[in-house]
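Intended use. Records like the one below are meant for learning the mapping from a protein sequence to its folded structure. Do not use them to infer anything beyond what is encoded.
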Amino acid sequence: MHSGSNNGLKPLALGLAIAIIWSISLLSVVLMALVFGVGFPWLGILASVYIGFSLTFWGVVIGFIWAFVDGFVGGFLLAWLYNWLSGCCRCQSSD
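Structure written out for the chain above:
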């Protein structure tokens, strides 16, 4: 999307931002579960989606990588879809 305008979302930037937030969120839930004993049902759901994720060191590393990739793909696709829809559904101005 380089039509000379700066409108729209940057897919790479949004993908990276959501990837960072989502992977840090996963680490936060892991820490809360280990320290305070809460969030285990949520970790069970994540373990059923992210293959290899568990409450071991390497399991958390694998989960972090999955969360980063998942967040990046989701953010990238969200920005791309937003840009595509805002481009094809733009109202024509009557000058």
